[in-house]
Amino acid sequence: MKDAKSNHKISSADSTGSTKAKYRIRYERDLCIGVAACVMSSPKYWEMDGEGKAILKQGREVSPGIFEIEISEEDYEESFGAAKECPVNCIHIINLETGEEII
What we know:
By secondary structure, the chain is an alpha+beta fold.
């Protein structure tokens, strides 16, 4: 596991001033055991559902049980914390530039 600061670059704003997505969060819902560490670390992106499993807010299902969302540099630290705290490692962060899975 790499630390939160390694192997990622500072994003640049596009011509409109908005920040571009630099990372992808990938969530494997079937592996979730409902500890809610992600919700405590990153309530902006995570909440619990009625089944006792986490929901990746605004995530899109890219294949059965796999949800993804793209985030900017400004949300990286919080998202890294949620992934790092997951006891079953069902949250992954991928660098969009390199394709590297950071966690």
